[in-house]
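Chain A, query sequence.
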Amino acid sequence: HDLGSGRWLLDFGRAFSGMLHFDEGLPQPIIPHNNIYPRAHGFGDASEKRWSFITVVYGESLEMTTGDINRVLVAGMGLHDGGPRHNAEPEGAQDNAFCFPDDHDGILTQKDIYVYPSESITSDMFSRARQSHFTTHAFRFAEICCTAEPPTNVHALMYRTAMQEWGTFDSSSVLINGGYELVKNSMRSNLLSVQSDCPHREKLPYGGDLIANSPAAMHMFDMSAFYKKTIRDWMDAQWDNGAYTETSVWQDLNDYAGIGKGAGETVWATAPPVLTVRHMQHYGDLDLLKESIGSHTRWLEFLNKEFDSGMIKMGYDKKLKTYRGDGSGLGDWLALPVKDTYLTHTGFYMASSRCIAYISNKLGNTKMRKKSVSLAELIRNRISSLYLWNGRDTFTYPMARYPSTPGPEMSLFARIVPGEKRCAVLKNWFRRKGETWDGDEETLFLNELDSSYAEQLVNAGVLIKDDEDYLFSVSQWQGFGEGIFSIRYALKTLSDMGFHHIALRKASGIGFGTTEYMLTHNATTMWETWWRSEDVYSRNHPMLGAIAEWMSSSVAGVSVHPTTVGGRQVLFWPRFPKSATMLKFASSIQGTPVGDFAIAWRFENLPEDKSKYDSALVTVRIRLLVPPGGSGMLRLPLPSSKTTKIRISHTNSIPDLDAARDEANRKCMNRRKHGLGFHWNWEYDRQRKKWYTHSSRKSIGTACESFLFNLTPEWSEQVDITHDVVSRTDSKLSAGLYDLIVTNWKLEKEEEGTGRLGNIPQYFHPNYNPGPFCNDSHSFDWHIDDATHIMI
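Chain A, predicted structure.
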């Protein structure tokens, strides 16, 4: 795109981390009229010496009022003059300041300069330039200036550490698939030597981020060597007093939020033992346990010494009589409701104890195991007694007036709530409601939106109309307001406790606080926040990426088993929607050291009349693949009608899997090339200063079916396992390929609740029975071999 004044804009279709490669070099540079370079493209030192140069500026989005690259987003943290629309600092305030070169115009800019230090150059001098060799950038767009013609044959090179990418997910839902792709694209951008928060500015391995999204990373990639290095980095940075830092290399960031000298915020600093436990579960490295147990034990001893007094110093009284939420700490970072920092501090003190218990048990240290289990139970009881003190069974801090996060979802997922209270806490969770949202960019958006569009959004359930005002809103049950931790707790708890359809509704919601909202604003990577930011928060940040692991483990139904080591056993637990209008099929591959496990399910015999998608009797077909050396535990949803039958057959003669995968990939790529994914986005008319919708054919979110349904082997005789499913008995599967047929599965209408801002009254009615899952005594307490429900 020609931006004028010798400036050219390149769009590479999606954001990533890497470099540009100029296959045929750069064109000859020109000097703009009156020697005035476009903003960010000057290089004063070279101009003074009459040297020739070309600049390349990088960014992940365009500034909406000018069409230029939005540089402030990748500068971040308000460290910029903001340009024409967003003024974090007065223009010129950053001139000559630390970290702000003069030619960056008061904005920390991603920028390469190709310069020839001579007044006279040959005609082919710049054609020899191929790429920068000094740094990577994070970008979708690049501006090149100043040349009379654009460079030809420019390629973008994506850089990340070379680990195997072994996890996939697909479904019939463009919205859910789109969310998965946003996370995976962000992960690919943030795995270069360290797992960074964002690939363009801080580039730091924050402990909280890793705790939140390491399950998604370990689903998608073989992180065995990568996370071993990460754990060792933290051990190297550990203070002499045992404190772990917030990032794997101490940066003096947010130390105010930690307990005791040198400690990072409790959740962030607990990353090393948490990652060690997950590493054992996925990769089975006993030597890493032996190597790290001393450092992790010193961290727990530090907490034992400093935690209670440290919490008092930070203003938390023991009975929480004066606590109103959102105290000192980072908590459920970037959540929209009040963050309950006491619960996250204390909960991850408990998680540290459980991690030491888990590791000690694997190493055969009985004394340390017993001591750590006792401490973890003591902390658990402390939390539950305080959070059930008011007698309302809502699992909130004693003086709570408003819902906070995390809350019931964390307590249920991490086995904190006493068994006899689980159903009551679960039911009361559904009392929570949404709230309106008046963030800066959303308010500006509404001010620049024609009323005809606004009315359409009201009818679609995206906006709320209050008299003559249009409002965005945070929906509790049709979207997300949760922060980086509770998003995982919420989705997993809903799916595991029989409310998978509500989890699906959250993940496939539309409007503010959803991945659909990001897609409507041309996102190709996950944002740092649920709200739209044009001047501070990154748009390539996998911090909220826990949704991706839930898609694989719950929507499709395969995950590393909670009690396995080395990824040798997976849990096959597919959950289905109530209605086929929500979802018709899903599939996933979970890579492990023993090989790839895979699952696919789909509704068959769906009626042609889609109005019957929430009432028909249909067939569900499920395919499972267990590699040699691996095993699976099969857990299926309870039958939806008395006539439902479930039969299984298998074959040990595995067909050509590579050929089946290649064929499925070919079909999928063809669909993506035809742009069968998310199909529209908002655009800004800079002359009218109005937003409008633009239809487009995109690949992101494209629905593709699994290769497992391309396989046609000879199956064994079917075996009826309906009784096992009704009695909730898991079935162990050895290596092989399996075919399950579920007949007479009854589709139902989805629960509506009381709207976008409302709750779901039928689920907290006194006479409502929430089902058998919250009454399951096997899930009342945390078990010593369970790496999943420690807290992560």
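The CA atoms of residues 565 and 631 lie 12 Å apart. The first helix runs from residue 44 to 48.
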